[in-house]
Every structure is written in structure tokens, then in C-alpha cells.
Amino acid sequence: MAKRTGQTSERLRKLIINLRKTAVKEKVNLWKAVKKELEKSTRQRRNVNIDRIERFSKEGEISLVPGKVLSDGELTKKINIAAYSFSKAAKEKINKIGKAMTIEELIEKNPKGKNVRIIG
Questions:
Q1: What is the C-alpha separation between 22 and 43, in angstroms, rounded?
Q2: d(Cα 84, Cα 61) in Å, to the nearest integer?
Q3: What is the pTM of this model?
Q4: Beta partners for residue 70, in sequence order
Q5: What's phi and psi for 23, nearest 5 deg?
Q6: What does the domain layout of the chain look like in residue ranges?
Q7: 10-118: in CATH 1.25.40.80
Q8: In this structure, how many other beta carbons lie within 10 angstroms of the beta carbon of residue 57?
Q9: 3-state SS string over 70-92?
Q10: Which residues contact 31 (CB under 8 A, 6 or more apart)?
């Protein structure tokens, strides 16, 4: 059995450390849950289409995807979406109506995690 090495992406390692620090500092379990999801292997990480985000999000709230956002579907509500990564087409569709941002930007903007819903 191969030895587990952890995350190899430098950006991902820094994000996980930042999530841990923010969770402890702000006493917010949301960031612990996101950290746990991002520590999974790439194959187990969530891939979410825009239509799923549309279905489970409310107008004006922030949807958080601890994985990749894909472009299948249309967005009709003004929703801000934070994710680890986006497909090019998904980012274009989201930015027409709402705003696509990275998880790092969301932590900086909203460290308390208010009005955030994890989708996946």
C-alpha cells in the first residue's frame, strides 16, 4: 500500500492552513468542514454543475463549493459563488449575473461565514 503524501498543490496547502487558522480564530465550524472536504483526494473532491447551485441556493446568498464548478445549466438568481476552481465556461456564466470568487477571497471578505451555504 502506498504511503499517503498529502496535498501536492502549494495553493491548496496554503488554503487548508488558512482555513484551519480562520476556523480557530473566528470559532466557525463552516471553515473546518470546508478544510475537511479539500483534504480529500482530487478524485473524491466535489464537482458541481451550475444547475445544482441554482436549485439549492437562495437569491443573494453565497454558495460555497469545496471543489470545482462546472458549466452545465443556467443561472437566473443573483448568487455569489465561491469555489476552489471553476471551468472557464462556468466562470463566464456566473459573472454575467452574480460573482465568481475563490475560497481565499471569501475568507478575506467574510471570515465569520455569514450567509454561506455549502453546495455539493
A1: 26
A2: 18
A3: 0.88
A4: 49
A5: -60, -40
A6: 10-118
A7: no
A8: 19
A9: ECCCCCCCCCEEEEEEECHHHHH
A10: 19, 20, 22, 23, 107, 113
